[in-house]
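Onboarding guide, step 5: your first structure request.
Type a short instruction followed by the sequence, for example:

Predict the 3D structure of this protein.
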Amino acid sequence: MPTDLYYTPLDDVGFTLVGHGTQFSVQSSTAMETVYRIKAGGQEIPPQNDTGLFRGWADEQGYFIKHNPRNDDLPADLDGKMNITVNPDYLAPKELFRTARSMGRNATLNKMSNLTWEFPVDAGFTYVLRLHFCELDPNINDIGNRQFHIYIASMLADDRADVMKWSQKQKGLAVLRNYAVLIPNNGTQKKFNLSLQMHPYGSSVDSKYADAFLNGLEIFKINTNNLAGPNPDPVQTPENSIPGKPGRESRTTIIDVVVGVGIGVVFISLVILVVVLRCKRVTERNSKDYKSKSITATQKVFLPSDLCRHFSLDEIEAATNNFDDVFIVGVGGFGHVYKGYIDDGFTPVAIKRLKPGSQQGVHEFLNEIEMLSQLRHLHLVSLIGYCNEMNEMILVYDFMARGTLRDHLYNTDNPPLSWKQRLQICIGAARGLHYLHTGGKHTIIHRDVKTTNILLDDKWMAKVSDFGLSRIGPTDTDKSHVSTHVKGSFGYIDPEYYKRFRLTEKSDVFSFGVVLFEILCGRPALIHSAETQQVSLSNWVKHCDRNGSIAEIVDPTIKTKIAPECLKKFCEIGMNCLLEDGTQRPRMKDVVAMLEFTLRLQESAEQPAIEKGEKISEDSFSTTDLNVTTTTSTSEDNSYSNDTVSSWTPFSEIIDPKPR
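The system replies with structure tokens like these:
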């Protein structure tokens, strides 16, 4: 163990004792306990991946508090290409600095928010917080570019913290800062929520970005004598007990009492075992019931018993080997997604588990069950069932072997998709959305269309997923929208919905337009580190379209493979989806038909017949190849008009709605 890793060197003045204005140092005679060791913005680092000291770095889930969920960011160097220096190397593993928690580039929102973590600790002790930083942002290059305030236990610990100043302007150099704080014991409070907050310093003319970030932290409990936490409340002594040393008769009485208690414990245990087994049999008999007691206790919801299967927690644990991390295939805001096997191991499934004990996502959990249990379509991910026991909320879906669409577009080791594959995926996703909008009794608005919510099966078929935010559209004929609070993912949200709180199916069309250009350009919907004009993909493609330079931002891996006519039509579809006025955007049925036409353009351009002078036109394609019926939008709909609408209907791909 390096002698200077946790103890203050003799020639060091120490560090700040927050709230007292004095210095604090850790002596070699001081008792110390590691209470928390956290990696910010990423998954945990197991002990075997540490620097040789076998420290485990847990993820921040359960401690990080999102004050503004649309305004936090996870910058990362997941491909490991950035040069990171940790000196000495045992201070922390390099992997700690490849992810971070920051606030993004929206200065207006940042000034009204902060980054906050809370850690339960024992009162009556001093705690040392060691914060780890490494500046990797390409836009931060000088002292003063990014400054922030650090608050510990609601007290100012550091005014205008500047990582570039601490590293002496060396990008990629890991630095740390120690702070001590005394948590007093007032005699009544045994536990204390120790908070760490970071506020951006955006008012200074020297500060280029109103932002704050953190790579990791350690919290140590300090005391000169012992580290034992407060004792639990004492058990009350019976009123007739006699204090003092017991005699022989008392000792005999004590032995009799102990034996009697032992017999009583055994008897009670047997009774409990019988009750548990009986309850288990009752639960198994009622497992086909579509309501779990946990659900009815929180919210009434109709779940068709013939379409939605109820899983016991035992079945889920067996399918995932008791939620073994080896089976994790995805991580999202809802929680972890596991690959599991049901029906005696013959059926692979995706199991989405809400973070245990979380109060967030209950509405989304119930909403997704209610929505998906009644939907069966070739281009929608099928819900198999759910589990709602022991404070667990779990959803079980068909397993999608290829993962999310985004997994195959950028920041990935997967080979790039061909242009025709991308077109076919676009068509499949559009068909799924069209079914949502028109295939049921009422319009269903997805409200969170994005590339991570489009999944791919083993045959590369696209399926729309994640219906936790979905809403039923207007049910009255005289209403054109639903008035509701804005929900969705930043970068995909319809600006008309964002400004006026009016949700329509055209809000999905706008989000799908962002997806189209994400597929074409091979870049995220938002890049916080990009130049201001390029941060938002939707704004960037509009700018390029006005300048006639949209071909320049196409994904280089497919740029030379796209037929010019196909690219022109594809961009035309995407730009119409991104129109500011929602009533002018196309319907999803129009989008499906035009994407089919775009695919036919690409296939025709690759055929020798084209070289012989045979020309394909939009009219000939629509009337000859697709058996088209001509439609125009009504004045009431005021939608995108087009004569090229195929005879394809969403009902042609409905899956037999049999029980799962």
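Each response can be followed by summary notes, for example: The chain has 14 helices and 27 strands.
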